[in-house]
Amino acid sequence: MILHGGRSFYGFTLGVIILDTHFPRILGDVGNAKTWKFPVIYKVVEGVNAQAVIRKQQDCVEKILICTKELEMAGARVITTSCGFLSLLQETLARSVKVPVITSALLLIPLVYRICGMKPVGIITADAKALTNEHLLSAGAAGIPVRIAGLEDTHFGTALLMDKLCIDYNEARNEVVHVAKTLVQKHPEIGCIVLECANLPPFAVEIENETGLVVFDLVDLVNMVCYASEKATDFSQAGPSKLQGVKPCTL
Question: What is the SS3 assignment for 215?
């Protein structure tokens, strides 16, 4: 049995495109490797932070595209990002590689809208002013009723957007829960909540407990796709039993 090589290391399921940031990555954040039950490899987009993405700086696209291709070449079977605003690049990145690409939790909106009774979808985002219809359109969510709340005026939101080195965890948790409860109080018609921001999954349980609504985030979506991807066999790591029936390489 001949196995193909070509890389220096193997066994990664997930590749994460990380913006060039320095704020703490809490357990549950996509940027904390312990969040994942799969082997993960990270690629930092040098010189590109949240503000650059929000301002849609043109050089961001090429840098992120390069990172996406490098993660595929490194062996990642699924690729995701660390910023929900990158939904704008969903089609561009997905077409650039041969593995699934998940740019944003916003991709969940069409699905959760239908499975939660066709009720408006609540969205909690790092910056409500920056989240536009273009982001929703790129995520396939055009025409779906949404209700949006942002964290731009909170300690936590400011820390993320301005890339501060310190975050008060308790204050951040209280702020996020408060924003979620206020959103639901203002819009009781909401059927579920989607967390746009990739830094919000650590607070999903608290949000769900306090609002009584099902909460969906990027980690949920990535886990689903990774579990599907793991059905395939990495021949370089497979034992003999896993290689039964594999078509031999023709030399």
Answer: strand
- Residues 114-169: tens digit of each pLDDT: 999 999 999 999 999 999 999 999 999 999 999 999 999 999 999 998 989 999 99
Task: Provide the greatest CA pair distance for the chain.
Answer: 66
**Six token digits for residue 161:** 């957007």
- Tell me how far apart the alpha carbons of residues 180 and 56 are, in angstroms, rounded to a whole number: 27
Per-residue pLDDT tens over the stretch 26-52? 999 999 999 999 999 999 999 998 888
Query: Do residues 38 and 226 make contact, with C-beta atoms less than 8 angstroms apart?
Result: yes
The 192-195 sheet, strands edge to edge: 146-150, 121-125, 192-195, 215-216
CA distance to 29, 145, 191, per residue, from 219 (Å): 8, 23, 20
